[in-house]
Amino acid sequence: MRCPICSVFEQNVGPTIDKDVKDGKFKVSYHIGAFLDRNMGGTGAKNALSAVGAALNVSPEAFAEYNKALYAKENHPEETKDDFAKGRLPAEDRPAGPGPQGQQGLREERQGRHLRQVGPGVCPTRSTRTRTSPAHPTIKLDGKKLTAEGSENPPMTGEQFTSAVNARLK
């Protein structure tokens, strides 16, 4: 949740994935890690993960909106800063956050009572998006790593993502 490259991925490719899911092109599953807390110290990634877990307790839509809010350029911290530590999450009560009905769940999540991983929806039939790689997000399509054309790196633009998905689905 503290990964800057994951934030850029979500900002640039997230809208394309959202559209493809809405259009029924594939389903998506998130597997979110908090490894930067372990690697750099702190609790911000776990705290942010708990907050999106509380949002998921409200609805899959609330999860998606709050996940976007956490990765938004204006909200996402530098990976070396523990800005998502307790009490420092962005606007939990705004429409993109868990909302008033999710506040108790959010408090419980922060106390570590619930999720370590978040997985909205069904296990995918076509695509899995994973954020557990230490270097960058790992995106899998039908269980195989999806990369930008001519690269070992994930697609980092909507166009690269669409091209990679279409090439794989041929």
Automatic annotation (TrEMBL):
<feature type="compositionally biased region" description="Basic and acidic residues">
    <location>
        <begin position="72"/>
        <end position="95"/>
    </location>
</feature>
<feature type="compositionally biased region" description="Polar residues">
    <location>
        <begin position="159"/>
        <end position="170"/>
    </location>
</feature>
<protein>
    <recommendedName>
        <fullName>Thioredoxin-like fold domain-containing protein</fullName>
    </recommendedName>
</protein>
<dbReference type="Pfam" id="PF13462">
    <property type="entry name" value="Thioredoxin_4"/>
</dbReference>
<dbReference type="InterPro" id="IPR012336">
    <property type="entry name" value="Thioredoxin-like_fold"/>
</dbReference>
<feature type="region of interest" description="Disordered">
    <location>
        <begin position="72"/>
        <end position="170"/>
    </location>
</feature>
<dbReference type="InterPro" id="IPR036249">
    <property type="entry name" value="Thioredoxin-like_sf"/>
</dbReference>
<feature type="domain" description="Thioredoxin-like fold">
    <location>
        <begin position="2"/>
        <end position="110"/>
    </location>
</feature>
